[in-house]
Amino acid sequence: MQNVTLNNGVEMPILGFGVYQIPPEQTEQAVSDALAAGYRLLDTAAAYQNEEAVGRAIKNSGVPREELFVTTKLWIQDAPAQENTRRAFETSLNKLGLDYLDLYLMHQPYGDVYGQWRAMEDLHRAGRAKAIGVANFYPDRLVDLIANNDVTPAVNQIETHPFFQRTADQELMREHGIQIQSWGGFAEGKNSLFTHPLLSEIAEKHAKSVAQVVLRWLTQRGVVAIPKSVRAERMAENIDIFDFELTDDQMAAIATLDTGTSLFFDHHDPEIVTWLSKRRLDS
Residue 201: which CATH number? Predict the structure, then answer.
């Protein structure tokens, strides 16, 4: 597995396994299968409500803790955000059955962002979270967070796929030493991604699947990817992407698919902000 080095020296696998929208009753088996297939980066979140199942799979896997890179995410916290963040962190850690996290992400750029981040900085300094970062931060919010705090996020996990490629965002992150990570790498199959003529043609030339081409395209750009599946054979296929390379022409062709627009929701839309901010999690 190839790794990327975060801005604090922590090594992170460039390809991992995500559990978004996997029901809790299916998550333990899915994570067990993913670990058996060779994945060592696991990505969950408090909002996914399957941290306990992820933790059981880790405990029963026999994989040494030091070989794993475990990420979970903090949901929106209101004042007193620093106190609430510490409590949310301990809740997630207990559900996962772990002593520390490899990466703790602020899930949304809302609520008391500064209070949340400063509590995360404290957790990082104490060694409870080896690295801290954010998710769904657009460039303006990201630069603002950097300018007004001590620790620069190690990672920004954002929607990134062939139809929303985020190249300018990635360049800004590179300038600030922030690792881009993709969510929704397959665009959840929208725009007929898995049968797209261009992607299918490239896949045929490499004797690979469209999914493998997309994951190779992401990782070849230096984007950390976390594909999700509940099928063991698909997990094995998704991790088998390091024995081929896309040509410059193929990378350029895929670049033409970029629409520059989210296929899911706009974090600048007041209705989306209101909807997300009203969601509350049971601890």
Answer: 3.20.20.100
Of the residues 20, 39, 48, 138, which is catalytic?
Answer: 48
Domain count, the chain: 1
Per-residue pLDDT in tens (0 to 9) along the chain, 283 residues: 899 999 999 999 999 999 999 999 999 999 999 999 999 999 999 999 999 999 999 999 999 999 999 999 999 997 789 999 999 999 999 999 999 999 999 999 999 999 999 999 999 999 999 999 999 999 999 999 999 999 999 999 999 999 999 999 999 999 999 999 999 999 999 999 999 999 999 999 999 999 999 999 999 999 999 999 999 999 999 999 999 999 999 999 999 999 999 999 889 889 888 888 878 675 4
Strand residues in 114-169 grouped as ranges (E): 132-135, 155-159
Give the separation between CA 14 and CA 151, rounded to whole angstroms.
22
Give the domain extent around 145: 3-278
- Proportion of the chain in helix, strand, coil states, percent, rounded to 5: 45, 15, 40
In a domain, 242, yes or no: yes
110 classed as catalytic: no
Residue 283 maps to a domain: no
